[in-house]
Amino acid sequence: MDFLASPEFWLALGQIIIIDILLGGDNAVVIALACRKLPPAQRTKGIIWGTAGAIVLRVILIAFAMTLLALPFLKFVGAILLVWIGVKLLAPDEEGHGDVQGSDKLLAAIKTIIVADLVMSVDNVIAIAGAAQNAGEHQFLLVVLGLLISIPIIVWGSQLVIKLMERFPMIITLGGMLLGWIAGGMLVTDPALANPDKWQWMLKMPLDASGDVLDTVKYGASVAGALLVLLAGKIILARRAAAAPAEQQH
């Protein structure tokens, strides 16, 4: 139980909960839409069982993701995807959830929630696997704890979370930058960059005495990732704002 006294464990757990809540807003909307036609007596059952099925599938996906991140170049791909997800959080596409079908049958609603959550969970899975990678041997425990804490918040507190984000847009900005931070740290710890004995044609990161990438390099890359997401998001929003008047004239 020594890990409970580790700041890294609690920091990673906090990051996972924040990621789940920020990226779980869409999932909360899907749950509401899928269950909207159920009789009131069955609505709570649909939400609980649909969410439970989605949690189990997500834990399995994350277990595979954490294993895959040990392979060379996959952290590269994961880091690029995280930056893209972070930018989308800051400058979201104008897309709705009109294609989510409500059902008046309990099992059909549960199936809709699980399938939709599975499709939409790719961003959560990559981000959570990246946040958990610094927790050593307790990565999987972190993931499960993070999900258990954050899922009830998403399901029953989604409206509150959405209102907070609308009132304090800085929360979304900081969330996007957090994803960029995780992406930067993930990139420089890719085995292709951090393993001096293999893939010697690649640029190698400086290592400390224990063979890990230097903390200064990790923090520098994390800061760069956070700033990259912020800058890209601001540029996209500025371009959209500039293009809007031109479109209105046509």
TrEMBL record:
Any single GO CC term annotated in Swiss-Prot or TrEMBL for this entry: membrane
Predominant place of localization: membrane
Alphabetic keyword roster: Membrane, Transmembrane, Transmembrane helix
Coiled-coil ranges (or none): none
Superkingdom, natural source: Bacteria
Membrane protein topology class: Multi-pass membrane protein
Residues annotated as transmembrane: 12-35, 47-67, 138-156, 168-188, 219-237
Localization annotation: Membrane
Keyword Transmembrane: yes
NCBIfam families: R_switched_YjbE
Family stated for the protein in its record: Belongs to the TerC family.
UniProt-listed PANTHER family: MEMBRANE BOUND PREDICTED REDOX MODULATOR, SLL1022 PROTEIN
Protein name: TerC family protein
Organism: Acidovorax kalamii
